[in-house]
Amino acid sequence: MDDGFAEYVAQRHLRLCRMAYLLARDWGAAEDLVQTALAKAWLAWRRIEGNPDPYVYRIIVNTHSSWWRRRWRGEVPAETVPETADPRDAAAEVDDQAALWSAIGALSPRQRAVIVLHYFEGRTLTQVAEIVGCSLGAVKSQLSRALTRLRVDPDIQTMSLEKVPR
Amino acid sequence: MTYTESDLRRLLTERVREQDGGEPSAHLDAIVRRGRRTRRTRRAMAAGGALALAVAAAGLMNVLPAAQPGTGETAAAQQRADSARVERGPELPETYAVVLGAERFDLALIHSRHFETMGVAQKVTFSPSTFSTGYKVVCDDPRAWVVTVERLKGGEPGGTAGRCDSSVGGHHDRLSAPSDWLKRPQSLQVWVFPADAPVREVAEAVTGCPVTPVSKDCDEKAQSQALMRPEVRERLSAQLGERPGRWAVGVYDRPAEASPGPD
User: What are the structural domains, with CATH classification, of chain A?
Assistant: First the structure.
């Protein structure tokens, strides 16, 4: 049984691992998640019509949620993003990134999945809803809460801050 | 500090590119094997469920006077249902007990990987939360040979080797862990070889096996030491190939704030 499965794995494995890493935050766990998802996809391969991505993504998201519920996690992410110094300072910029990464780790598995699928995978919210298996309204609600916790303001457009010597 | 959506996109993109040790590679064979195993499990469970229904039906018939001759069939059906039960792989303990002089504490399981084959190297990557990180390997066959290799404080390789039931594993403390232990994901390499693997023959061929001063010949202790040499493992692995055999490795650690850094 193949019908393009090997080709799909060859083409998509790295991307799937990266997406899984953003959920699990551990490369070993990410590879395990992807292997689990692809093994299940292999079983259902002939029944999958069209693009297998949504099916595989859904397995990864659901499997990660179930692992997250039952595993002890040594990581204790901050509940909120701490205030930082001058945003133009290079060290402060690194701190900001670390704080944002830490805050992503504090999100629930579902909120994290919505963030990763929308902002990393570039999926529309309708596609995200299909993958995580809930309504579009629920996804919008999850996204709004997640962005609030991350202190990401979707109304602010990107502007490049000029780095000036202090 | 307020972020923009672009900040978020950039962070996610950058984070996935920071992996040490190269990009993860796809193991199609392992994926397909796992798929086949899942299918076997589902079929076995479905068969077990059907048999359980048959047992229940037969049991119900047995309480009726006209159905008493069916008792023997009920027992037979029960036996088949039991035989269809799927065995789980080796279980890892939830905690790892550490004794450091007068100090005793337990490490909690933070990461585990289960494998279905032996004979080839497996790399396990994990993110330690403290310098007190331990690991343990368990096998379906307690006489299987296990070798673990990790990086020590000076960057040199170290590890353990022996039969699986001889508590193969170990733990770091703040004196033995490399200085970058908490700065990036760490990895452990594990080889598991079948109990009847020709370790002695390969060790004698490669090294002559004169390893331990107390061993007069290439006994099991000397064979264990020979397995720490890469050329012995490589030849053994090439000779055996990948074979079925279940085992698991667990990584244990303390909560992040519990351990001070190295001196």
Answer: 1-74 (1.10.1740)
pLDDT-derived band at B77, boundaries 50, 70, 90:
very low
Whether the CB of B252 is below 8 Å from some CB of chain A: the reply is no
Contact B129 A75 (CB under 8 A): yes
What CA–CA distance (Å, rounded) separates B234 from B147? 12
Do residues B35 and A40 make contact, with C-beta atoms less than 8 angstroms apart? Answer: yes
Exposed, middle or buried: residue A68 (CB in 10 Å: 0-12, 13-18, 19+)? middle
Compare CB distances from A151 to B2, B19, B127 and report the shortest one's residue.
B2
- pLDDT tens for residues B6-36? 889 999 998 888 665 556 777 888 888 888 8
Question: Of the candidates B24, B109, B126, which has its C-beta nearest A72's C-beta?
Answer: B109
- Rounded to an integer, what distance in angstroms lies between the CA atom of residue B137 and that of residue B247? 7
| Cβ–Cβ gap B31/A43 under 8 Å | no
- Same domain, residue pair B59 and B143: no
Write out the residue range of the structural domain in which residue B215 sits.
95-258
In a domain? residue B19: no
d(CA B31, CA B190): 20
SS (H, E, C) B57-75: HHHHHHCCHHHHHHHHHHH
Asked if B16 lies within 8 A of A21 by C-beta distance, the reply is yes
What is the ipTM, given to two decimal places? 0.80
**In sequence order, what are the residues at sequence separation of 6 or more whose Cβ sits closer than 8 angstroms to the Cβ of residue A125?**
A118, A136, A139, A140, A143
Give the closest of B28, B111, B255 to A29, CB-based.
Answer: B111
Structural domains in chain B (count) = 2
Task: Identify whether residues B34 and B62 lie together within a single domain.
Answer: yes
Could you tell me if B123 and B206 lie in one domain?
Answer: yes
**Pair (B74, B99) in one structural domain:** no
